[in-house]
Each structure stands twice: as structure tokens, then as C-alpha cells.
Amino acid sequence: MTQYRLRADSAQATQEFGRHLASLLFPGAVVLLSGDLGAGKTALTQGIGAGLGVSEPITSPTFTIVQEYASGRLPLIHADLYRIGDPSELAELGFEEYFERGGVVVIEWPDQLGELRPPEYLELRLDYLGPAERRITVAAHGSAYARLAEELVGGGPLPVESTSI
Ligand SMILES: Nc1ncnc2c1ncn2[C@@H]1O[C@H](COP(=O)(O)OP(=O)(O)OP(=O)(O)O)[C@@H](O)[C@H]1O
Ligand SMILES: [Mg+2]
Prior knowledge:
This protein is 27% helix and 28% strand. It is built from 4 helices and 8 strands; from the N terminus they run βαβαββαβββαβ.
């Protein structure tokens, strides 16, 4: 699995990266966003929303777990699983159904998915480097996402720090 390490030197740069990612997303695409509190997962999601043409403001869905935005090129489903106590709660909520909507599913705190983690997805990890600097590690799971990752990194706005295979 190829991993790419990128660097974003501002929240705007991260959002610009999200916009570019949005242009490559397809119906049913899954993007898992990991990283600590305040790493920039929601900021990146705001960029994805802007790129899809979502007109509503994208806020942190922490208290609702899932927020859906229908005004863009594809439906955007934004989930924040931080407050889920146990992955079994997600199954009870019928969370799997969100993967079948033909939208783009963006999930913060994806370790909470447990067995609901789909077989193929794009994984982005954000790491804090400094007040405005973040490392974004891109990893593709599945061939469709491998192609997407190549375009995302090669034709994208962020400098590539390293590529490892
Ligand atoms: N390069 C950067 N990329 C992303 N966000 C940045 C960057 N530099 C500064 N920031 C700031 O860091 C904060 C990131 O907050 P955000 O809510 O996106 O984090 P999060 O990862 O979603 O956290 P949580 O786990 O609490 O949901 C914002 O205030 C944003 O402006
Ligand atoms: Mg967030």
C-alpha cells in the first residue's frame, strides 16, 4: 500500500486540499479522517463540502453523530464518531445504510467503526506539526482509491514530503 506524506501550512491549505479531493470523489466514496482533537478533520471536511458545492455551513456533527448535506454535486454525509461508546451502537443506529446512499461518506474517528469499516476507502491522517502546520498522510485501501490517491497527490495543491510503498 502506497502512503504519501503531504504538508499543509495553514487551515486554508488543508481546505484547498479538501476542495481538490472533492473533485475526484465518486458516488459511494468513503473518506476516513483520523488524527487528534483539533488536528483539522472538520476543517478538511469543510474543504470537501466547498468542493462539492455544498451551500450550507459544515459544522462539527459531534452532538448529532451524522450530518447530511444535499445541496452539492453529490450528497455529503459527515459523521463524527468521537462520542460513540461502542461500535455496536452504530449498528443499532443503522449506520451501515449511509454507505448505500450514493453519496460521499466522510468519517471522523473511524476507529470507532469496528466491523462496520468498509473494505475499500481513502484514509487521511492529520498530524499536528505546529500551530498552523499539519502533516497529511494519504493511504488508499482498494484499487479505485489507489487511482484516486495518485491524482489527489500528483495534481494537488500540497507539497509532497515523501512517498513510501
Ligand atoms: N494546517 C491546518 N489544517 C487544518 N486546521 C488547521 C491548520 N492550521 C490551523 N488549523 C486550525 O486547527 C483547528 C482544527 O479544528 P478542527 O475542528 O478541524 O479539528 P478536528 O480534527 O475536526 O477536531 P475534533 O476531533 O475535535 O473534531 C481549526 O481551528 C483550524 O483553523
Ligand atoms: Mg472535528
